Amino acid sequence: MNLPHSVAEILDNHVTFQLESIDRMYLNIYVPSLQYEGGVVKFFRSHRGQPITSSALMSPMTKSFVAATERFAEEHQIPLIPFEKGQRKEDVMAERLRHFDQEEGVVFLGRAQEKAPVFRTEKRRNPQTSQRYPWIVRSTAMVNHYYWYCLDRDFGPFFLKFCSYFPYTAKLCVNGHEYAKRQLEQEGITYQALDNGFASCADPQRLQAICQQLGPEQIDQLLRRWLARLPHPFTPQDHAAGYRYDLSILQAEFSLTQILDRPLSGRIFFEEIIRENLDLGRPDQVQLIFDRRVNQRTPGRFRTRVLTEGVIPSLHVDYKSSRIKQYFKQVPGVSQVGARTETTVNNPRDFYLGKRLSNYPLSGRSAFRPTDVFSKSNVSAMTVP
User: What does the alpha-carbon distance between residue 218 and residue 198 come to, in Å, rounded to a whole number?
Assistant: First the structure.
């Protein structure tokens, strides 16, 4: 038996399946003009016609929104689950999903108290007249958040989390691999699932095309479709006046999965990666991988970390608040292993991009393409805009 001797040889001769995809996307949902004090004042005074802007005007909106949310759950027989401190919400969803027999719908509604940015009224005094008047200021508070855990026909499992207090920001979490699975099933293409990914596919070219077509338009359509179904605090009159939700990126994960033909190839592959790339965290290497100049003023720690959990190592490289990670995933039921490379972007401004989802070049190309960055011969192929 001839053993492979290099990473390049393994990539050329021992990879049975390969896929680049958006992994998880965690998005902020917000009304842009309600994120600052002047916008809040304009909303209540110019739009809703109130003579004085005060947080007292927010209370009826909050009570109505909370009542509509819990009434919707009761009318549609949706379980309302108060989350306990430290409870893994994903585990609750996985358990509930096993007993969910609908093609699409709300699996359950979760409720948790969390800190959130809010607006409050502060009493100020006019220095000339000594008259007191209300003033809107930004603050934080512990308030209830409602988690809609849903199953979508096109996206699979996702959740939409609403803050119950003004300005009613929300979070949307979707999974690109789950989106791809739903598209394959609708087209009748068989595949073997990997934990949060794929191990094989009857038509890998079609699968890659599906992953590349997922972008801002599809994610925006998902949000609008469910906003039309679920309770939210803004009226049709608010929408007509321009008070509509927009999306921005809170965290984006992009992945490259490479399935190897046998565990031995995987072990040699990873041993060579670690041996050859312990210096990848140095500034001169980081700027090659991320195509960004690194100097003394660039924030962050520049290091290569090799972490072990049991006997399975993982390799990590950091750039500002973003990172690249490579590790192994076992293919269930067979002797194959998968090499997973993940690029996690925690701040789009690390790459001189705005945070709005529309700024992301997700569709039609591989954005933040996590190619085999740990093979030095392929470092130049790493394209992070």
Answer: 21
Q: Confirm if 283 and 299 have CB atoms less than 8 A apart.
A: no
CB 365 within 8 A of CB 385: no
Write out the two tokens for 379. Answer: 């470092």
Strand 170-175 relative to strand 191-194: parallel, antiparallel, unpaired?
Answer: unpaired
**319 alpha-carbon distance from chain centroid:** 19
- pTM value is 0.81
Which long-range contacts does 88-97 make (Cβ < 8 Å, 24+ apart)? 89/147, 89/149, 89/159, 92/149, 93/149, 93/157, 93/159, 96/149, 97/151, 97/157
Determine the average pLDDT of the residues in 218-230: 96
- State how far the Cα of 173 lies from the Cα of 153, in Å rounded to an integer: 15
Q: What would the pLDDT profile of 178-194 be if each residue is shown by its tens digit? A: 999 999 999 999 999 88
